[in-house]
Amino acid sequence: MTKKAVVLYSGGLDSTTCMAIARADGFEPHAMSFAYGQRHSVELEKARIYAPQIGAIAHQLVQIDLRQFGGSSLTSDQEVPKDRPMDDEIPTTYVPARNTIFLSFALSWAEVLGAFDIYIGVNALDYSGYPDCRPEYIHAFETLANLATRAGVEKTGHYRVHAPLLHLSKAEIIRVGQDLGVDYGLTHSCYDPSPAGIACGRCDSCRLRLKGFAEAGLEDPIPYETRDAKN
Predict the structure, then answer these.
(1) Which of 9, 133, 155, 164 has a 20 to 30 A CA-CA distance from 95?
(2) Residue 83: is its pLDDT beyond 90?
(3) What are residue 3's DSSP bridge partners?
(4) Contacts of 170 (CB under 8 A, 6+ apart)
(5) Mean pLDDT computed over 68-95
(6) Domains annotated on the chain, with CATH
(7) Rounded mean pLDDT of 132-146?
(8) 7, 78, 170, 64 alpha-carbon torsion, rounded to 10°
């Protein structure tokens, strides 16, 4: 019998690769996306259209409003940083507690589905310095999942949080996805796309993505307003 897994799916490069990995691992991926008040909707439109095309058995779009709190340039009118030094400083695009919120929803759905596996596409190498993308965070949430659920308390199942991209460079992630047949033309990564949904090429996410494709020796198939990213 094929096992179920909940996959956090934004429509981006990492989460799409994560979905392909979950499928390759023998799971039926149940995709979960979030309309959380982010400044653009193009990623959600792509997620809705492409989730079934890349193997999702079901797709939940969860509506929450983190814009009422703000605290991030993705959930407020604050300008998204462009061409910034890629240092250890946590950037303004960090959304407070976002992965904790997302994983909590994923855990809830997993309990209902009778699934014990959750996939998240966090990365601790080529990333923007977010505190909720670190290995110790993933380990801590997995511990919490087994303390805070009926199956965990009754010892009828053990929850696992899979972060298969955690220790991979962006180039390595792209190569893994290519081997699994991922069409990266169906993905979106930009923090600040144009009104037409075209990636800016200058935010952290665009620059890391372009750097990854360059290091993988491949051409990124999506259009950009500019590809002159300073990596």
Answers:
(1) 164
(2) no
(3) 27
(4) 13, 123, 125, 126, 208, 209, 211, 212, 215
(5) 87
(6) 3-188 (3.40.50.620)
(7) 95
(8) 0
Give the number of residues written for the chain: 231
Amino acid at 130: Y
User: pTM here?
Assistant: 0.94
- Here the tokens at position 176 are 């893994």
Position 16 scores a pLDDT of 94
Q: Which contacts of 207-212 are long-range, i.e. CB under 8 A and separated by 24 or more positions?
A: 207/83, 207/86, 207/231, 208/86, 208/126, 208/127, 208/128, 208/170, 209/13, 209/170, 211/126, 211/170, 211/171, 212/13, 212/126, 212/169, 212/170, 212/171, 212/173, 212/174
The yes-or-no verdict on residue 71 having pLDDT over 70 is yes
Q: Residue written as tokens 């020796």? A: 217
